Every structure is written in structure tokens, then in C-alpha cells.
Amino acid sequence: MPRRSDIDSILVIGSGPIVIGQACEFDYSGTQACRVLAEEGFRVVLANSNPATIMTDPAMADRTYVEPLDHDVLAAIIERERPDALLPTLGGQTALNLTMSLSERGVLDAFGVEVIGANAEAITTAEDREKFKAAMEEIGLAVPASGFAHSLDEALAIGESIGYPIMVRPSFILGGAGTGIAVDRERLVRLAAEGIDASPIGEVLIEESIAGQKEFELEVMRDHADNCVVICSIENVDPMGIHTGDSITVAPAQTLTDVEYQTMRDAAFACIRRVGVETGGSNVQFAVNPEDGRQVVIEMNPRVSRSSALASKATGFPIAKIAAKLAVGYRLDEVTNDITGVTPASFEPTIDYVVTKIPRWAFEKLPGATDELGTRMQSVGEVMAIGRTFPESLQKAIRSLEQGRSGLNADPSEADVDRVPVDDLLATVRTATPERLFQLESLLRRGVSVDRLATATGIDPWFLSEMASITDARMALDLQVTLGVTVDDLDRRGWRRLKRLGFSDAQLAHLFGSGVGEDDIRRIRLALDAGVTFKTVDTCGAEFEAHTPYHYATTEDEDEVAPSDRPRVIILGSGPNRIGQGIEFDYCCVHASFALRDAGFETVMVNCNPETVSTDYDTSDRLYFEPLTPEDLANVLDAEIKASVDGGRVVGVIVSLGGQTPLKLAASIPEELVLGTSPASIDLAEDRERWNALCAELGIPQPPGGTAGNAAEAVAVAAKVGYPVLVRPSYVLGGRAMEIVYDDERLVAAVDAMASMLTREGGVTAERRVLVDRFLEDAVEVDVDAVRDATGDVVICGVMEHVEEAGVHSGDSACALPPQTLSAKVVTELENHVRVIADALDVCGICNVQFAVKDDLVYVLEANPRASRTVPFVAKATGVPVAMVAARVMVGATLKELRAEGLLRDPVVGHVSVKEAVLPFNRFPGVDTLLGPEMRSTGEVMGIGTTFGLAFAKSQIAAGNRLPVDGTVFLSLADRDKRSGLEAARQFVSLGFDLAATSGTAALLESEGIPVATVVAKVGDRGAAGVDAVELIAGGKVQLVVNTPRGRGPRADGLHIRATALAHQVPCLTTVAAFKAAAGGIADWISHPLSVRSLQEYHAS
Amino acid sequence: MTGRNGTAPRSEALLVLADGEVFEGDAIGAQPHDSGIATGEAVFNTVLSGYQEVLTDPSYAGQVIAFTYPHIGNYGVNPTDDEATRPHCRGLIVRDLADRPSSWRSAGTLEAFLVRHGVPGITGVDTRRLTRHLRHYGAMPCAFGTATESELLSAARSAEATDGRDLVSAVTTETIMVRGHGPYRVVAYDFGIKEAMLRQLGELATVTVVPASTPADQVLALQPDGIFLSNGPGDPAALPAITAEIGKLAADGTVPVFGICLGHQILAAALGATTYKLPFGHHGGNHPVRRLATGKVEITSQNHNYAVAEGSLASADVTHVNLNDGVIEGLRSRDTPAFSVQYHPEAGPGPHDARYLFEEFRLLMDATGAHSGSDGAVGKA
Ligand SMILES: Nc1ncnc2c1ncn2[C@@H]1O[C@H](COP(=O)(O)OP(=O)(O)O)[C@@H](O)[C@H]1O
Ligand SMILES: Nc1ncnc2c1ncn2[C@@H]1O[C@H](COP(=O)(O)OP(=O)(O)O)[C@@H](O)[C@H]1O
Ligand SMILES: [Mg+2]
Ligand SMILES: [Mg+2]
To answer: Is the ipTM of this complex over 0.90?
Structure first.
């Protein structure tokens, strides 16, 4: 049956803010779905609170609701839009859970909305682990021995009967939240309690632990005619016990005989059929016992997932896109495979390369968290690399991570691990950490056998011995070098053998040593015709001709890059998502690609992040799935230049839209090929001393400061500018390692800490200096985004006033557009400064300037001649497609032309937009939730309303800290905050809230005639009220916690309060600014009925 | 280079196609008999797993198999996955032969297996370039080994393709053997039969495996409930004698006939159809085939270079079609109880989607005459 004609309007629910376990892979799948549904002529209604996504681009749907993903809000949207159908399988766990609650609340029936893709029945069967196990047993599939508990006692009873170690898994969770392996009773008690909390239905699965067994995933698709296919098999290098999202994974499966693979395939089909996913994709996870091949089913996700995004990129088979088509009635055999253009989608991709995915973690930003990997997903992003062999793809993947490693060791950083004695290392590798790969290679190099390492780690010997082949080649080369072999002695085959193992020129240079540089290696190789070739991802192992230029580099004979006679622009993506550099930058790159394609250019994308829209093969005209390093980029440039025929040419490379990653590459690109702002200007803005000089010259005030190459120099600077000071390294994003210090002692400590923390990035040296600035207390921070064209014309795209004071990283603080408290005079001054700075830097394209405003004095904090995190937010708030405008300007268009063309419009006014950050603390118990100058948020949400209060309230709901409308507010304010908190406190009382406060705060409130219902004692000693703060919060007697840090004194008290609030999911505000905003928000929220409005409507006005 | 698992240093080798295309690699497996040169018809196979089954599939007689998937040998070889007592292919071309296999079932490395069975091979080859070449210019003879390029080229030029050659007589059984334990009685023509087929048939019948040259009357004399025509290597047009005998069986029409792969082509020929050679054949485990009766799609295991010509089927109906290229994948005789498929429902390697065909064979045997009963006594009385 072709497209359904009985429905014409479809509601798609996105996955909301980027959080650990649910990242931009859902923007990729959602965007594909929206495009397909639109192509098919459906009216698409989209709900997603995440402004950084491409799917929320107004062009992607007929109605785009950037509203909180909450069942009341969804109900309101449904009532307003009356969609015929709801597609819940593309927005991750969020969309599934929302759909469930909408159907339970009868909303779907009430408005006659049909759930397509997977119905409620199927969703429960898959997500409710109890129902799922029963279902699997029913169809004769093995599952680990287990029982279900809804209470601690039940949990213990079952636990004892199964025997330790025991796996605890809450139902209806995501990213392994609340899961864990208990080795004894005590741990089981903890885990079971947490698990019951974590599960929306208060249920945990108590299960036999099979940690250490092999873990596999199959990506399956099914259509309504019951045709089933496997799109991709994935083998986890890390065994069971390490979340697939935190595991190094490889496609296709490497160590299954066909007999075992077919058994797994049959099981996956049986599973999807029994669960009842009628159409679309599902992910089925299996464990295989390496001793006897016994297979058990671990779980099934009845939706597209992180793994399906990976599988799509790994095979070239767009699972989400096809899933959308199947959901609206098509059969697999009615859809053609875009890549071959002739064969149907009802087949199983076969590939002729190996894909390796490595997660990217952010432990360095979360002091207090251990970097031990387990069943709870902790990674914030991932990279994927394609090579013809596992060693090649592994080394490419490691380079893609951008963590200062050139491959699997064989680089300067290997010294750290080689220093550790074998026995210590052997003990260390038993636990998986981000460092394990490098430790294993070091052990192999030191003669430890593959078998020994396999036993220690549970990693299959095949993977280890393939790693060993890298080690062997490296040791052979080391030997040759000691025997006097030089770079000039290797012949073509010699170089090819090394390159085929994935060695980067940087590694080879390191191995040859003696002053041999990366560039020498490249030059010599190329002279011997030992360069790379680009192959094509084609779903069919070359059996059919491929029509989509989706390429990867490898060392082979034949290059498949097609010639082109068109002008081409190369866009560099932003690599793996990490805290400080996330989906916002992918949004910018994708918009650039769209805009330039519309303007008649051929667009070429280079990126290595499998979760993104930018690495979708049909986002750009050509896709190179490659690491973002100078060597890999040079390969792409050479290939594209070589491919230019009759008039075709490479116009240039866009480096300013992908965050810090491409910016760092600018220096390695021929100057004339860098589009937009010149590398010189980029450098001028990044180099503190020159930047300060420039500001002085322009007469733009900065916080007084200086730079230092060591602790002593830092202290000297501090003496000059006065405490408090803010210390940080230059050339990092996301306020990495930034600290506010109030005295010499802390300053010295901070600089030393920085030196060691940043050794990876090169340490602190005379060259890589630390910045020491006077810290402006209680200043208002402002972000401004602007675009300047080659003629010097500047457009101010957005002025954003932060809610939290300067000192809370711009990425972590809420902000409002337009500004709410700044005087017109200040705003004009800000805009003028931006114009002057943009001129001085001769910006061509986009730039972002950050200011701190204190007592109506404007200080500039920094200027970034590149796209900032706020670009997509600004675009959605104002209707101005900022990134598109910037991209066009970079290739020569003037703002005037773009206005005439209609691409550049005037910003829409009349509403307030608030961006709020989403922080990952719930995944890292033990990490303090205080906000500071080091960015820690993983994602953001947007609230739009007619008043600041409404917009702020919506942003809070969207961010998951729903503000209470009544109850008790618990206040514990730092002395310096007490007065400023009074107003808000009064407002809460007038809104009918009770106040509870710690003695000091209470005293002041009462002296000001503000009633305090409960005076709370310091943590530990029960005061008048007979309860301490922790008990009060834990006892559920508090609906909102406001706790600001007590200056620099012992913070233990506050820490307990914040930790308790976090643990019991009580919203907790840590700044007075947020407290004030909340008061305003709640006031407006109470006095207005819930109303929703689409971007299209806002932008039309 | 020396693998850490004690494998000997490999000597550089070349692969040369009959049209002069040259590929670099390293020699693996057995030493080719004639002066370091192995020859055969180069074909590519796109399976991701199942190399052991493919290598031991007699249908590859006369051919050199190139796997499009780069890593081959990862899980070693085991005693149970062979499709025949020994490989019949003439060589193996891979991108990367695993040094160190890993599987609880593994009984040794693929390399040792190749040496043991005298199969030469070459690794390190840009098999994607090779595949693209064969896709453009069709399967063609090749030569590989440590000999010089010119020696290899002339060897490749004089090497035979499979066209017009009877490769069956080389792989068929010399003696009659009995396999399986099912209640029915099936006579299976061995044109190069795979173990997987015998396993499937053995489930439902006691299978008498007879040489390819067995005359029709001898087969009928065994009074089977059904006759099975196996897969096999090479060009069906080169087997007129066999085709004539099968023609008699088909004409007789008293006993159901089920054919697979070469068996399918021979049955078609026996029913008057003609066959032709595909440019590079179908060799893989992922081909979508539509079963016309239900419209459903099966993912199929495929291994053939020849196919039944569209429109040459006067007395049979097409039952299955390949959705990639429209090639006829199955047929059913109009007036006799005979049917066949071009692909491999027995899998080994490949998906199990089409296992139902063996059940259809059973039903057909039921439909045509009382079956012999589980006592195994010769039936049809
Ligand atoms: N019985 C078990 N024993 C050991 N590890 C397990 C077991 N079940 C699951 N795991 C591990 O926990 C991880 C997360 O479990 P899973 O059910 O997949 O949660 P999620 O829904 O978050 O993916 C899995 O990837 C696996 O590595
Ligand atoms: N002199 C200062 N006084 C007060 N706060 C500051 C000062 N300098 C920086 N900050 C705070 O530190 C945060 C991070 O600094 P910034 O230079 O923006 O780092 P990044 O480059 O990582 O964005 C800013 O968002 C601001 O809140
Ligand atoms: Mg999982
Ligand atoms: Mg799950």
C-alpha cells in the first residue's frame, strides 16, 4: 500500500534539550522525518523545546512549537492543531514517554489522534522491562534470570535468590539512568532505592549480572506488510556491563559466525514482531556468552535511537527517513534506495569497510565525578570513523576525538601511560575508563599477551589482536629506526602498509623522531605516490553504482571522488559534541550548507560526528566523513582541488561556524582559501595581549587584567588589578578550567591545577599563558551576535541579557532577548562597541561579543569572530536566519543584497524569548550544582511568551525544573545576597507561598517584616523547628530551594542542601538573579492561562 | 609483515585480470601448483559473515572468490560449517586475512585451512577496486601469485572462464549415499550439493544422493516421494545429457521435483527454457526477492552466474523475482508437480527467510501420492 490518504496532518514530537543519553541524534532523525513528511505532502506540526536543533527551523515544518515538552502543553498544541496522527518514534525516550502519558490521559482519544509507528501497546511491551521479559520468554528467547521489585524488600528477596553480582535496571529509563551492578547486599540496597526512584513507574528489574559477556546490537526495520530487514549489526568492543552509549562499538559485527549471526537475526525479527512495532526501526540488544555462544536478549528500543543514527551513517541507509515513510503507509519495497537510485529499500545493506564509534566524555569538567564507565551512560558525544580495516578506523576515530591524541599512542602523550608499571596497568585496565585503549596498547607493546588482556577486560581477543597489529608494525618501525632507517628509506609499499593501519603522519613523525615533521612525512609519501584515496559509502559493497558522494579516506589504489565543474565551498563541522561545543554549531554548518546550495554553490561537508544532521549524506552535495585534523583536511582539500574540471573550483573553506574545532584548523589551510574573517583577525581576537592592546586603542573598557606564564606572574597581575580575579587558559572553549579566586593562595593553586589539568592541551607555558582578569562581581552579562559584510555594513542580530550575573558561564546562564533591564543608552553603547570591534577585526561574516555591565558601565569580556552558541536561539527568537546570512556574506554577498533578496529580514519584536541551560548533574551525584565560569550544561531550551515572566516560566518547565505555584520556598542566602533577595522573597509571600529559611537569612527577612514559617537549622544540628535543612527537603516539605554560595567560606552546608534538592528532584536556584526571575515567572504563570504559539506565527507578526 | 601470532612473513604477490588490470597484495594459503601461479574466474561475494560456507560451496568450482568485506577469517574455521568435504574454488582474494581468529567454535585459522586444502590466496588487495572493475566489465579469468606480472597476465589470458564448461562432473558424488532420517523418501541429484540442503531435506526425508549422471529411470526405480535437483557450478547449457534426463522426470510428472540454483536452471532448461550468463552474477546474502504469490519480500542468499531467460518459459510460471534487477528467481511448472528457485532457501550462509520452500516441497509430496511412511519402506504402493 502506498502513502496513506486518510491522514493529512501529523504531529512530530522532538526529544527536547540535549542531555546525556539523548543527544542530537534525535535532531538528525527528526529532521529527516519532517523533510520526508513534508515531501509527501503532509501538514507537519512539530513540538520541541530545543532551539539549537535544525528540526525546529521554521522551514522544516508547517507549524513549529518551541514549547516545553510537557503533557499539558502538548495537549494544548493538539487541541489547537488537531493533527490526525502522532509520530512518537523519532523523539527518543522523551517522545515515547510523552505519548504514553497523552494516551493514558485520554488526550489522544479525545481529539481522535492516531499514534503511528509504534502504538501504546508496543511501547509498553518494549519499555516495561517486566512485560518485555515475559514477552521474550513467551516466544522462546532467552533472557537473564531476573525478577521485578517495587520495594526494597522485594528487591533484596529476589537479589538473594539470584545471587551476586546483580544488575539493577529501572523500567522506562534512558541511558542506563539508575542502573548499576551490585556485588553485595549493601550496594544492592543503594542501587535498588535509586532505581525505584529513577523509574517513572517505581519498578526495577533485579537481574543476573552477565557483565563481561559480548554485547551486540541489531538495527531492524519492519513495514506494515511484515517485511523485516536488518540494517546493521553492531558489536561492542567493551563487554556487557558498560553501557552501549559508553562503549567503543564497531559495525558490522566482527566475531559472529554466520550460523550465530542468523540466529540473532531470527531472534531480532521475532522480538520486533512480538513487541508489535508495526512499522519503523527498532534496536535490539543481545549478550553472547563467549564460552558457549549462548545468546540472551537485553532490551529492545521500539524507536530510532543513538545506535540507529550510527547505523544510518555507517551503512548509508537512512533509518529515520525510511521509518517515516513506512509510518505513513509505504512498504520497504515501495521505497527506493537513494544511494543506488535503482534498487529498493527492502534489502540488507552490506558494507566493505569497518566503522568504529568512540564516545567522548567530559569528566574533566565535572570535578567530583570518577571516570569509571559502567551501566550508566556518561558520555556527552561521540565520533565515528570509517576505514577499510578495524585498525585504520580505530586510529582515525581516536584522532577524531580531538583530545590531543594522534592515534593509538605512538605520540608524545603515550609517555604518561608507558611510565606506569605493567602490573599496575594490568590492574587498572580491569575497569573501563576513557584511557583504557591507550593502556591496552602500552601493555601489548610491553609484551603482555592478547589472551591475558582479554581475560582482564572481557574485550574479545580479535579486537585486541587487531590492535596488536598496530603495535607490531610500530615496533617493527621503531626497530628499523634504531637500525638507522630514515624517512627516505621507506618505499611506496612500506608507507602504504603503515598508512593502511591508520597511522597519522603525526604519529609517524613521532616514531621517526630526530626532527622529522608531520609535513615531511606527507611530502615524502606523496612523492612516492603513497597518498590516500577516497572510497564511497554505498550500502552495497560496490555491487551497484552509487549516486551519493559520501566518502571516507583510506589507503587503497582507486579514488572515487567525481569531477565537478561547479564552484564548491567546503564547510568544516564541529566534531564530537562536548560540553561547550554542541549541536548549536552543527545547526550553523547545516544552515550554511542549505544557504550556499540555494545560492548555486556545491557544498562539501567535512565532519566526524555520526549524531548530526551535517553528516547526513543529503544535507550537502558532498560529504567527507573524516577526522578534523590538518592531515585529514589536507587530504580532502587535495581531492576537491583535483576534482575541479572545466571551470569548477574550490571557492574556499568555512571555518567560523563549527566552533573552536575548525577555527583551530584555519592556520593549516592556504590563507586564500579561508572564507570570511582572516586567520590573522581570528588570532588577534584570541591572543589576549594583542586583544587587550586593541581594546585600549579603541577605547573600549575591559576588566583590568593581564596574562601570566606561571603562578608567580599570576600573583603579580592580581596584585595589580586587585581581587577577586578570574583565571583561565587561553584558547579553550566553554570556560574550561576557569576559576574565580579571592586570594594569592587559591590563585597559585588554580594556576598549578591548570598546568597539570591541561597538559593534554599543552600545559601552561610562556607561550600558552593563563589569563588573569579582575572579576566583576554582580555584573550583568550580555551576549551580542552580529554579522558584518566585506563593505563594512554591520547588522546586530541579537542582544541577549543574561539572567545570572557575570561569573556564571554564558553557556550555563539563562538569557533573555530582548534585554529586560538594560537602559536604551547601554544597549546603544553595546551595539556601537560591537560595530567598532567588528570593524577593527575586519570581520567578514559572523561575530559574537560578550560584555559585562556594572553600574551602567560596559566592559567587553571577549569577542569571538565566529558563530557562537546563541546563533540558533537568536534565529528562532527574531526570525532572522543568522547563520545563512553569515554564510552568504562569507562568499561575497553584501547585507544590502541579502535584504533585497529577502533572506535578511528585520527582527520580529513583540514577544520575549528566554534561553535556559540544561545541566547534567542528575547523572553525576557528588558534583556540586553551583554554577560558575566553567560551562557544564549539555543543552538548552527556549521559552517564548508575551512577558519575560511567562517566557522564563516556560523555559524552566522545558528544562525540567517546573516552578511550583504554591507550597514552601526554602531560602539559604549568602550574606552578600541577603539584601538583594528581599524583594523576591516578599513577592513569593504575596503569591501565597510559605517561607522557610536558615537562621541568618530568616533573621533578616523577619527584621524586614517578611514572615518566615519555618526557621531551619544548619545541616546536622536540629534547631527550633526540630528539622535540619536536609531533612526538610528530603521530607518533601519544600517545593523550591534557593541556595546561594556562602562567599568563599566552607561550602559544605550549601553543598548538602543542593545535593539533597538534586536527589529529591526539588528545583534548586543557586543565584539571586534566578530567584528574582522565578518570582516574576510564577506571578505571570499563575495569572495567565496556558497558551502556545508556533514560530511561524511569531515570525509572521 | 609478520603477524604477532607467529604467522610467517608473507611474500608480495600480484593479481592480474585477463584484461590486464593489476592489483598488489601478499600471498596467503597454499602454494599454487604450477610455478607460483593460480588461475580461475574472478567473482565477488558481498556476504559479511559465512566465508567458510562460501569457500566450501561446490558451486564455486573453477572460480576465484573475492570477498567485498575486508576482514576475512575473524572467527577461524570450525568442523560444522563446511558445505562440502573440501573447497572446490580455485582461490581466495581478500583485503585483510585475520591473523588471530576468535570464536568459541573455532578449530583453527582460515590460513591453515587454505593450506590444508591446497587453496591459494592473496591478501591486501583493494577488493573494492576489483569489485567495481568486475561490476563494469563482468566476471573474467584471472591469475595471481608470486610470479611476474607478465607471466601472470599470460596465465590469466589463457585461463578458462566457466562458459560452456561442464564443471559438475568434477564435483558430483561418484557413489550413491543415503542421508537424513525424515519420513519421506527423496532422491537428490548431486550437481555439487551443499550440506545445508542435505540438512534441510534430511529433516523431512531419507535422502538418497545420486551422481549427476544418474538416468531418470534409475531414479524412478527408487520410487521416491520427491526428486531434488541440487545447486552446482558452471554453465547449465553445458549439461545437455543431464538436462535430457531431468526432462524425462519432469515429463513423467508422477514425482514432485524441487530444484535450487543450478537445479533450477536445469529444470527450466528441461522445461524448454533457455539460460544466459549474467555480467557478474549474484553472490551474496542480501538480495531482495519478491514472492509473487504473497507479494512479500524475502532477503535471500544468492550464488549464481547464469539465469533463466525471461520469456523463454513456455510451460512454467514465474513465482519469484529479484527486486534489484528483475532476474527470474523462481518458477513452477504448469502441468507437472515441479518447482524451483534460483536462490538458496537452505541458507548456509545467509538468511532463513525462504525456509518455507522445503515445507512446500513436503506438501507437494503429500499432494502427489501417499508417502512412504515413517517406516521408511519404499512407498507409492
Ligand atoms: N544483566 C546484565 N548484566 C550485566 N550488564 C548488563 C545487564 N543488562 C544490561 N547490562 C548493561 O547495561 C547497559 C544498559 O542497559 P540497557 O537495558 O540497554 O539500558 P538503556 O535502556 O539505557 O540502554 C547495557 O548496554 C549493558 O552493557
Ligand atoms: N572579568 C570578568 N568578570 C566577571 N565575569 C567574567 C569575567 N570574565 C569572564 N567572565 C565570566 O566567565 C564566563 C566565561 O568567560 P568567556 O571568556 O566567555 O569563556 P568562553 O570563551 O569559554 O566563553 C563568561 O561567560 C562570564 O560569565
Ligand atoms: Mg541499551
Ligand atoms: Mg533503552
So the answer is: yes
